[in-house]
Amino acid sequence: MESSNPAGVRQAVPLYLVRHMQACIDFYVKGLGFDVTNTWLVDGEIRWCWMSMGDAAMMFQELAPASTSPNGTDQKLGLGVELCLQCDNALLMYERATANRLAVQEPFVGNNMWVVSLRDPDGYKISFESPTDVPEGTTYQEWNKPARP
């Protein structure tokens, strides 16, 4: 049988356009703990970078200053895009995000997974998801309530 992967494709890595590279780096690296593993510099400034956490990877490229839509307004970024990162413990990412004062939605259980969602500075939705046996629809607050005597 012939291989369905003759080119040896190993990984799909999304590329996101961003308005301000430093805000992007601050959010993903300082806020969530990603590592910048490769960069492209223009005049000493990072214009593109590759970030990773475990086996997950993303690329970001700063829009050129002249990047506007035909009507002269800024391009709308983050529309219709969600990055879902499967992990061992999504709730740890919730704790990290709240500790770093990032705006994060309350985790909930959906499709037998804890779902922790937030938006980056350009409006891209990023969700961390991990398997759980907690009942469907349970929120973090419901699940994390202290037991009453």
Q: Strand order within the widest sheet?
A: 1-4-3-2
Number of helices: 3
The biggest beta sheet reads: 4 strands, mixed
Oligomer: single chain
Mean pLDDT: 90
Shape: globular
SSE order:
EHEEEEHEEEH
Q: Give the CA-CA distance, first to last residue.
A: 64 Å
Unreliable runs: 67-73
Q: Report the sheet-strand fraction.
A: 25-35%
Describe the structure.
The chain is α/β, with parallel strands linked by helices and 149 residues long. The protein has three helices and eight strands, in the order E-H-E-E-E-E-H-E-E-E-H. It has helices at residues 21-31, 90-99, 140-143, and strands at 15-18, 35-42, 45-53, 56-62, 82-86, 108-110, 113-119, 125-131. It has a four-stranded mixed β-sheet, covered by helices on one side. Strands 5-8-7-6 form a four-stranded mixed β-sheet, covered by helices on one side. Strand 6 (108-110) and strand 7 form a beta hairpin. The N and C termini lie far apart (64 Å).
